[in-house]
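User: What would this chain look like folded?
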Amino acid sequence: MFGFNFDRKTLYIIIGILVLLSLASYGIDGIFDLILSVPAVLVAITVHEFGHAIAAYKLGDDTAYRQGRISLNPLDHIDPLGLAMLLFAHIGWGKPVQVDPRNYNRNISVEKADAMVSFAGPLMNFITAIIFALIYCAIIKFAGVAFIFSNIGSIIISIVVYVITMNIGLGVFNLIPLPPLDGSKIFLPILPYNAKSWFIEHEQIFYFVFLIIWITGIAGQLISPIIGKMTQWILGLATTIFGL
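Assistant: Here's the prediction, encoded as structure tokens.
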């Protein structure tokens, strides 16, 4: 994906070692929280890739449809390495949705169609976060105190909260305007011609920039305030709807 020379098997071995080292440092509570976050990760990746696939299909490209990617089955979208990275490094990816721009409808430019397909992934994450925020508020309002403070209730609420935060996090992260993230294609059409040409010609440099801010944790520091504000806004919207 990023031009590394490691083959897939080597990458799985490396990530497996990192996973074991991480688990050793987590403790019982940390492992339990990790288990609760798994459904949220599966949901976030699935709806994100589904968004890309359905948008491409609506714009005339049936590549994802023929590959069975217009699906809400996590098995159709999960990349094992990307899943592990999202669980343990909080930055990961799903199996990329393949598109063929030659199939797009000709009533809009290929560049704009690519931008729409790219934006559909984060948009699905945000929509999913709103839906689960409404579910969270519905539980708080209607489930009753006994259920909320029961073991089952606490687990369900925790999973719902994880789904909200994971979807917002994945959606915001992918809006960073650097390749290979969706943001690089979303913002390309609005750039002036000269800036656009320069960006495309020097795209490889931006891959390295992305790797640097990812590995150093700068990316997380940059988007954390945005994720926090979006979470507050979405939960605020849901609580207003339910009158909490």
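The longest helix spans residues 8-58. If you want, I can go into more detail on any region.
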